[in-house]
Design goal:
There is one protein chain. This protein is α/β, with parallel strands linked by helices. Helices cover 35% and strands 18% of the residues. Strands 1, 2, 3, 4, 5, 6, 13, 14, 15, 16, 17 and 18 form a twelve-stranded mixed sheet that branches. The longest helix has 21 residues. It is globular. The relative contact order is 0.16.
Amino acid sequence: MEYKTDIEIAQESEMERITAVAEKCGIEPEYVEQYGNYKAKIDLKLLSDRADRPDGKLILVTAITPTPAGEGKTTTTVGLGDALRKIGKKSVIALREPSLGPVFGVKGGAAGGGYAQVVPMEDINLHFTGDFHAIGAANNLLAAMLDNHIYQGNALGIDPTTITWRRCVDMNDRQLRFVVDGLGGRVNGRPREDGYDITVASEIMAVFCLSTDILDLKRRLASIIVAYTYDGTPVTAGDLKAAGAMAALLKDALKPNLVQTLEHTPAFVHGGPFANIAHGCNSIVATKLALKLGDYCVTEAGFGADLGAEKFLDIKCRMAGLKPDAVVIVATVRALKMHGGLDKKELGTEDLEALKRGLPNLLQHVENITQVYHLPAVVAVNRFPTDTEAELKLVEDECRKLGVNVALSEVWGKGGEGGIALAQEVVRLCENPENREFTYAYPDGTSIQYKLNAIVGRIYHGGKAVLTPAAKKQAKQLFELGFGDLPICMAKTQYSFSDNPKLLGAPSGFDVTVRNLKVSAGAGFIVALTGEVMTMPGLPKVPAAEKIDVDENGVISGLF
């Protein structure tokens, strides 16, 4: 059987006009700002005009710890949204925008897969509506104004050795991790060590996704700390008088982007922070708008539940006053067998022993959601043709021991029809809520060390967080500056519960080394860099970009 590629399926689909998609979820024409026929931005005024409407149910889709075998979290999110519509529920999807780094790097496109995709797939994966360009421009404007302030006399008394603000570009480019700039004489600036982050790891991206309106955006931008004076006082974007111009660059980007699935389910695709080095969730305004427009909002958080879901629950929900009504944990038999020690080439053969060894990874994620956060959950097994009945039964039996049901998901090959069993279980969980109080992994008002230990101990099931001498000094400084109460955004490898990407499954007895603590005062959290995680990824030996092309008619190929 010959399978079509994701991009072939997407290009063969017949999209509805975006005005019809908007009408489907009750958005009047005056709120719709079209970007061509198949994508639009939605005026934020709609959110305030719908303030009196009750929210729909919030469904969070997360996953086991990623492996090269793949999990299919975005595909499941899209398919679940379509499936809910098929059983008569008014669903709206809320996703992140893909970064050009992974698109041209390892993963390729990130708009779902098979017959569970959001379209126009090429636009979403590439420039889309220009949001990331606006975010990069705002970030680099602040960097330019900071260096210019120092060049023009440094009235604020900034110590150049304390500059924490880096430029950004939305591309995997390891050459830019560490640079020396300002060379060539005084007219070209002051020489200093500098560096770039990828745009999706920048604080501007976090601020963008966590802002609730334009005034909140301006307040958060003004609070961003870029450096310190010679006497240790923080210097902010507000001190540099940069926040207004930055907000002007972002004012249109802040409006959520509306697109559709292959089955014409409305989908907001807005914001795109990485979950291993940032907080990994789409924008608050898109999520809240989806909740006002649908009976069910299906959203996702990046990578495994120890990263994206932890940050969704401990950062985004805490700040926005959100609470998921149900959590979907995506797993594949293939990935679990990799966690059990099998090589990728061996995954097509039944191996119950390897599956038993890998299952603790899934079960630990399930336990975290149900026992730490006290949220109802269902496991969605993204089915592959090589999965055997014995393997599927083993997964189901082990999950039921924790009081969690399993639903097979075949949305990749069947679209919404293949997700009906999952949709029915999600509806059951929402319509029969358990009397349990949603709790965070750590309470407000606790120390930086307490929060780090809580995440390492309760979520990763490790020992403790070990701070390097430099990180200890930073923790003391952040406490003295009044930032000690902020939540923690862990920057950690996505491939393990630990900070060692080679420790698969559900390891225990490990400590997590925190080498750097940096306050993102505008975003409202402290970033903890652990292990060897980088804020600027690099391209692989064979980048996905090598396979991407466009013909004389403008038709793109090889995107995924």
